[in-house]
């Protein structure tokens, strides 16, 4: 049986590399490894081709972490606390999400992924969370707080009542988009995961925790199984 092909939406580099000073597109090795470990074949989806054509060649879409979402995409002016944004990248990612939904391809969102999914479907974001609870940038591979998972959700069937997660974000879901079900909350009430029949998205970075505990791969295993069907 052919392995599911997983399209990872490319992120644009924050800084220009090396001698040539050209921008470049990338994904992080931990996403590639997580997809590969659970039986998928990852490929990078780059701007330049129509989103419908890109989604047509994959079995599922992975929206990875990255920069902040442009506030104008959810009807707000950009605050000074908002980080680096790229409207062209937002538009590309939104087109991939819409195409995946249209073609009924499963979507897995991680960190920025959950945020751009929510915005694409009509939700809004906190541009800069007042709480420092969620900003543990130096501890990328260390879990730092618990999320409480809603009983009866798909996420609950994967992890149970609670999950210890890492946290590398200063933005989060404010108004939840219609059609998304909140499946987990942090102790300060922030939505930490959402889902529906096609979408599974989480605010933490499970791909960075898999080396310390294989249970975090369960999310990717669930995603790959959805892509097989």
From TrEMBL:
GO terms for cellular component: cytosol. InterPro entries: Class_I_gatase-like, Peptidase_C26, PuuD-like. This is Gamma-glutamyl-gamma-aminobutyrate hydrolase family protein. GO terms for molecular function: hydrolase activity, acting on carbon-nitrogen (but not peptide) bonds, in linear amides. Keywords: Hydrolase. The keyword DNA-binding does not apply.
């Amino acid at each position: 049986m052919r392995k599911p092909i997983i399209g990872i939406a490319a992120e644009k580099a924050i800084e220009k590399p090396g001698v040539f000073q050209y921008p470049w597109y990338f994904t992080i090795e931990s996403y590639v490894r997580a997809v590969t470990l659970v039986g998928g074949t990852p490929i990078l989806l780059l701007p330049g081709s129509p989103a419908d054509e890109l989604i047509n060649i994959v079995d599922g879409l992975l929206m990875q972490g990255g920069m902040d979402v442009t506030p104008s995409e959810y009807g707000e002016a950009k605050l000074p606390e908002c980080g680096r944004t790229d409207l062209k990248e937002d538009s590309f990612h939104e087109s991939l999400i819409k195409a995946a939904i249209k073609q009924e391809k499963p979507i897995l969102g991680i960190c920025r992924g959950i945020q751009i999914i929510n915005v694409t479907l009509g939700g809004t974001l906190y541009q800069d969370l007042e709480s420092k609870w969620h900003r543990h940038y130096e501890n990328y591979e260390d879990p730092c707080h618990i999320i409480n998972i809603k009983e009866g959700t798909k996420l609950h069937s994967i992890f149970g009542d609670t999950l210890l997660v890492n946290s590398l974000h200063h933005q989060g879901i404010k108004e939840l988009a219609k059609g998304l079900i909140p499946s987990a909350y942090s102790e300060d009430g922030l939505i930490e995961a959402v889902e529906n029949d096609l979408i599974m998205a989480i605010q933490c970075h499970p791909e960075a925790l898999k080396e310390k505990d294989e249970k975090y791969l369960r999310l990717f295993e669930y995603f790959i199984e959805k892509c097989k069907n």
